[in-house]
């Protein structure tokens, strides 16, 4: 009984630490994401007005709130401390990409490079620690599928930007094939909702170009924290 109580206390302690780490990191990226995004926008836009919304108090509160929720979820769902660190580090570039792309429809390459570096370090650690290259292969396949999924539509003259293609490939690299496909489904559903809202408010329609970055970021974070498809396939022995 004493052993069980000690184990329970240890689990509670780990849970508390994860929540605390998530809250602290969520606040950090929430406050840091706005000035970082503003700097990236000003480097890529000639119109200072593109950053006006970043000074809005409600917008700042929403960003900080979203960052908190994402960071706590990432901390609580990570299996192991190495994955926890990786997931938390990926949140900042994903958040900044969502903000920048939604305002000026551009995805900064430095943020993509940051994600690649974080994932590269994690893959190296995992391969050395587990002495297997399975995850490296999964990451490479995810990168290829992510690149292909956006390249094919662009070849067919569907308006997909080069930044979107690169971001899609990097997301595939970071969350792997099955989670990437889940993220794409979520992205599609969110884009459909956005189109309905645009049509209902008479601000756009089917031909309206919608930035992919914010929706893919949301889909990626949800899929990274809650890989439902992967879990289901694992239970039935298909993955």
Structural write-up:
It contains eight helices and no strands. With 239 residues, the chain is an all-alpha fold. The model has no long low-confidence stretch (mean pLDDT 89).
Query: What is the molecular shape?
Result: globular
| N-to-C span | 38 Å
**Largest sheet, if any?**
none
Return the string of H and E elements.
HHHHHHHH
Q: What structural class should be given to the helix and strand makeup?
A: mainly alpha
Topology:
Blueprint: H1 2-44, H2 57-77, H3 81-104, H4 109-130, H5 134-155, H6 162-200, H7 212-225, H8 228-235
Helix pairs in contact: 1-2, 1-3, 2-3, 2-7, 3-4, 3-7, 4-6, 5-6, 6-7
In a nutshell, what does this entry contain?
The chain is mainly α. The chain contains eight helices and no strands.
Which characteristics define this entry?
239 residues; mainly alpha; 8 helices; 81% helix
């Amino acid at each position: 009984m004493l052993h069980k109580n000690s184990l329970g206390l240890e689990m509670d302690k780990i849970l508390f630490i994860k929540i605390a780490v998530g809250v602290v990191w969520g606040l950090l990226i929430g406050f840091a994401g706005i000035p970082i995004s503003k700097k990236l926008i000003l480097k890529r836009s000639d119109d200072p007005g593109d950053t006006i919304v970043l000074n809005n108090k409600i917008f700042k509160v929403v960003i900080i709130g979203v960052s908190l929720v994402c960071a706590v979820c990432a901390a609580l769902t990570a299996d192991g401390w190495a994955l926890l660190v990786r997931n938390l580090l990926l949140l900042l570039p994903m958040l900044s990409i969502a903000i920048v792309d939604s305002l000026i429809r551009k995805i900064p390459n430095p943020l993509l490079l940051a994600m690649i570096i974080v994932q590269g370090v994690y893959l190296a650690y995992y391969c050395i620690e587990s002495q297997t290259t399975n995850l490296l292969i999964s990451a490479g396949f995810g990168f290829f599928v992510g690149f292909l999924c956006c390249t094919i539509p662009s070849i067919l003259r569907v308006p997909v930007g080069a930044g979107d293609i690169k971001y899609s490939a990097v997301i595939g690299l970071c969350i792997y094939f099955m989670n990437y496909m889940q993220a794409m489904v979520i992205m599609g559903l969110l884009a459909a909702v956005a189109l309905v809202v645009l049509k209902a408010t008479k601000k756009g329609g089917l031909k309206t170009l919608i930035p992919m970055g914010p929706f893919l970021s949301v889909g990626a974070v949800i899929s990274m924290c809650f890989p439902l498809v992967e879990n289901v396939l694992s239970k039935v022995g298909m993955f």
